[in-house]
Write a structure and sequence with these properties.
With about 250 residues, this protein is α/β, with parallel strands linked by helices. The chain contains eight helices and seven strands; from the N terminus they run E-H-E-H-E-H-E-H-E-H-E-H-H-H-E. The termini are far apart. The chain binds NADPH dihydro-nicotinamide-adenine-dinucleotide phosphate and 2-hydroxyethylsulfonic acid. The site of 2-hydroxyethylsulfonic acid (8X3) has 6 residues, from loops.
Length: about 250
């Protein structure tokens, strides 16, 4: 059986690290990308350099992204699966109180970098009849206070996935959009600027999704028979559900 190759972004933590480990541990070659090189190196320590290639760069830096792709070793060059996972939310403030620089960082990471990498890899994904899994979020579907631009970026990812599927019609390339709800990773630490107490409080007693749950979901999607495409999959913890609308009443 030919060894397949995964490129996963955001592989230094959370979903991305679990996805990298799941695939590397099950015989795939993995290109693991993120900024924190020392975290990525742990994957090489676990699975070996013939199984995991690391590329440490800021995904918002297009020149660095192109250089990382150009520098791929020969045996990691044919990519069969792209998992666009790197992303972040910054702040839970209401729109009127938000910092514009944080909004731009979310758009640059969650949207601009994602489409750039996707566009660069499309020719080889088409040639190899590969697959794309985009990690979106329930926040792209359900509004919540403080979701503003983060939810907007994820709505983009969800619609981009649907539109990609349509454009790739007839190529054999599969496109799936994974929309997780509340999951315990470093996500809330990043969102709150490193507030461990806030992160612990959010997840306490909620039995949230784990990074392993999402890695297992992506593994399932990637290993379905080639005639099947999971278009969208929304996953929440049992403890989470959508709540209703809000109304302001005059006194
Ligand atoms: P983590 O914070 O644990 O991981 C985020 C990953 O993204 C890290 O590996 C980080 O690496 C990488 N990343 C962030 N910014 C950049 C950048 N500029 N350049 C390169 N890599 C970057 O969060 P999650 O695992 O939870 O998040 C993964 C994805 O899942 C995100 O897209 C998130 O929006 C989405 N998601 C998360 C949910 C949750 O509740 N946790 C639910 C739904 C979706 P490094 O810092 O080393 O660069
Ligand atoms: C992360 C999930 O609901 O906290 O995308 O925005 S949520």
């Amino acid at each position: 059986m030919t060894t397949k190759t995964l490129l996963v972004t955001g592989a230094s933590a959370g979903f991305g690290a679990a996805i990298a480990a799941k695939f590397a541990g099950n015989g795939w070659r993995v290109i693991a990308c993120a900024r924190r090189a020392e975290r990525l190196a742990q994957l090489v320590d676990r699975f070996g350099a013939d199984r995991v290639h690391t590329a440490a760069f800021d995904i918002r830096d297009e020149a660095a992204l192109r250089a990382a792709l150009d520098a791929l070793p020969e045996n990691f060059r044919g990519i069969d699966l792209l998992v666009n996972n790197a992303g972040l939310a910054l702040s839970t403030a209401k729109a009127q109180d938000c910092d514009l620089a944080q909004w731009r960082q979310m758009i640059d990471t969650n949207v601009t970098a994602l489409v750039t990498l996707t566009r660069l890899l499309l020719p080889q994904l088409i040639e190899r009849r590969g697959a794309i899994v985009n990690i979106s979020s329930i926040s792209g579907t359900y509004p919540y206070t403080g979701g503003n631009v983060y939810g907007g970026t994820k709505a983009f990812v969800t619609q981009f996935s649907t539109n990609l599927r349509t454009d790739l019609h007839g190529t054999g390339v599969r496109v799936s959009n994974v929309e997780p709800g509340m999951a315990e990773t470093e996500f809330t630490l990043v969102r709150t600027g490193g507030n461990h107490a806030a992160s612990d409080k959010l997840y306490a007693g909620a039995h949230p999704i784990t990074a392993q749950d999402i890695a297992d979901t992506v593994w399932w999607i990637a290993n379905l028979p080639p005639h099947l495409n999971v278009n969208r999959i929304e996953v929440m913890p049992v403890s989470q559900s959508a709540a209703g609308l809000q109304v302001v009443r005059e006194a």
